[in-house]
């Protein structure tokens, strides 16, 4: 079999990292990315990019932990290299605070992040409305720079990238041996997945370089995440809302909520409002299947539905998707060998 041709549909953090893992695990593959949008116009560009996992109720916890650990280890190495500032990856310390004692004292990811511990009484004085909290250090991706860094690495390994809206994955069967679906919320239409739904998120990206620590309300709704150049203030979680138009009332509400945690944000400048649709599902769809029409077969690997936690687990799920692509290629090579015998 000639070099297997693999098409990855989607150029958010999931598509780009999956394509990169495929080039690493299958160097003989010719990989092409086809996407309707590239950075800075994807949901991944809107995200805060914090490595704090979101829990997928339909996926075993040990699997989610493995995905998070692989992602953390990968990004920690980048943060500790000369590439860190170009890739937009940095360590950030801060607090997650609770009004009531949380159900689980130790979240499953507590031994993956660094220095996880209960907050001290002195730290809690900063948050008079809150009863307890957790202090830790994690990683943050500055999203557009990280996506551009991934694109640069892909181009250096010979991956081709084309702007193209794919109406049906089947249309790719003549040109490619394997198709990988990383279309995010686009998979709702692309493969008719009714289990996938948008959770709209509105955030503010502000200039407030004096804010150095992250603050997250335990319910996950209000957060302040300092990045290299901007601080992300959030947020909202609106299930089944497809609107990408910023809402001015929500902007004010987010700003007021964040200022109640960090009053110095009153002095924030250059406030930009962004909206994204989290591609949400009970579980990430990481699955290999074979499509067939009139005796013609097309192996398809799905990797979408990362909801509120795509950055936190992207490397782990990309590795698993690349492994599934390897299985598809091995099966194709097996069948072409059988055909020759
Ligand atoms: P996307 O980034 O949406 O990429 C999908 C790609 O597929 C796009 O390039 C699109 O153009 C393409 N596409 C779609 N349909 C087609 C088609 N038919 N043909 C061709 N191309 C197609 N996660 C975290 O881990 N930490 C955070 O702090 C965090 N904060 C967030 C804050 C907000 C406000 C939001 C909205 C999300 C946040 N997330 C966070 C979640 C994270 O953004 C997502 O899980 C992640 O971006 C999903 O990546 P993706 O590549 O699957 O989707």
UniProtKB/TrEMBL annotation:
InterPro entries documented for this protein: D-amino_acid_oxidase_CS, DAO, FAD-dep_OxRdtase
Domain of life, source organism: Eukaryota
Enzyme class: oxidoreductase
Catalytic activity: D-aspartate + O2 + H2O = oxaloacetate + H2O2 + NH4(+); D-glutamate + O2 + H2O = 2-oxoglutarate + H2O2 + NH4(+)
Matching Pfam families: DAO
Cellular location(s): Cytoplasm, Cytosol; Peroxisome matrix
E.C. code: 1.4.3.1
GO molecular function, one term: D-aspartate oxidase activity
GO aspect biological process, one term: L-aspartate catabolic process
Residue span(s) of domain FAD dependent oxidoreductase: 5-324
GO CC, alphabetical: cytosol; peroxisomal matrix
Cofactor(s) required for function per UniProt: FAD
Signal peptide: 1-19
Binding site for FAD: 43-44, 166
Residues holding D-dopa: 223, 278
Coiled coil: none
Alphabetic keyword roster: Cytoplasm, FAD, Flavoprotein, Oxidoreductase, Peroxisome, Signal
Functional description taken from the UniProt entry: Selectively catalyzes the oxidative deamination of acidic amino acids. Suppresses the level of D-aspartate in the brain, an amino acid that can act as an agonist for glutamate receptors. Protects the organism from the toxicity of D-amino acids. May also function in the intestine.
Family: Belongs to the DAMOX/DASOX family.
Name by which UniProt lists this protein: D-aspartate oxidase
